[in-house]
Amino acid sequence: MRPRRTKRPTLPSPDEIYGGGVTGNRMRGEFTYRVDIHEALQRRHERGMSRIDDAGYWRDGNGHSWRVPYGVRAAFGNTLTFSQIASEYPFYVQWRHPSKNGGPPRTLTRSCSSLGAACAFIVAHLTDVDPEAFIVCRLGFYIPSPLLGKFPRRMGPQQKMHYWCPRCMAPRVFRRTSGDQWFYANKKILTTDRHGNPDYQWKNVRLALIECTRCGLNNRDNKFRASNQPVTKVKVRATRRARTTRRRRR
Ligand SMILES: [Zn+2]
């Protein structure tokens, strides 16, 4: 007899899962050890990728489409951290909304429960309002591995210096914060090794505080620091395979 196919557990409603913490947006205590719930939330996160076509567009049925930026597409492949799973709204969408009385546009945000929901919100409501609307991951993702070591770099029509922003998942221009703020952090500095070859070394240096012109993340963030350092390639020499069976003593 064929084993009966077991039904995949359905996700309880968000009202049941979340509601803890001071703000009520944290996972309730009884779900923090539920592996099945965590896996279901991870599947929900990864499922968003299936809505993006080969050209990188997310389309809805009403003729709206949005080109999903590379950083967001790469983020769909990430494993969510426990903090992201335990938060009801780990993402938000930010955009500039034109004001009715002709004043300057207002900056608005909307919290989203998943990356896919954030994309769907932009496609449904913002493609005509602000073409530069973007998604922010509150806790940030590390830079996608193909881009590791490529930032900071000069790019764009004016060749401005861009850093990878782990919160809005894109290359961004960073500016000095208001006020003369400095801090100390570790940074890779180009030096030469004892053979005279170029070599990077970590040094504790004084740095100016700068922040993302879009989402406001500053360069003290550890994901920012890890995402914007040079990377050296290490050649791994092929070694002889280790002997797996011990030679018997005769
Ligand atoms: Zn940013």
Q: How does this structure look, described?
A:
- By secondary structure, the chain is of the alpha+beta class.
- 18% of the residues lie in helices and 28% in strands.
- It has six helices and 14 strands.
- It has helices at 14-17, 35-47, 70-75, 82-85, 115-126, 222-227; strands at residues 18-20, 26-27, 57-59, 65-67, 91-97, 106-112, 134-137, 153-155, 160-165, 170-172, 174-176, 182-192, 198-208, 210-212.
- It has a three-stranded antiparallel sheet with strand order 6-5-7, covered by helices on one side. The chain has a three-stranded antiparallel sheet with strand order 8-9-10. The protein has a two-stranded antiparallel ribbon with strand order 1-2.
- Strand 12 (182-192) and strand 13 form a beta hairpin.
- It is globular.
- The relative contact order is 0.11.
- Zinc ion is lined by residues 165, 167-168, 172, 212, 214-215, 217.
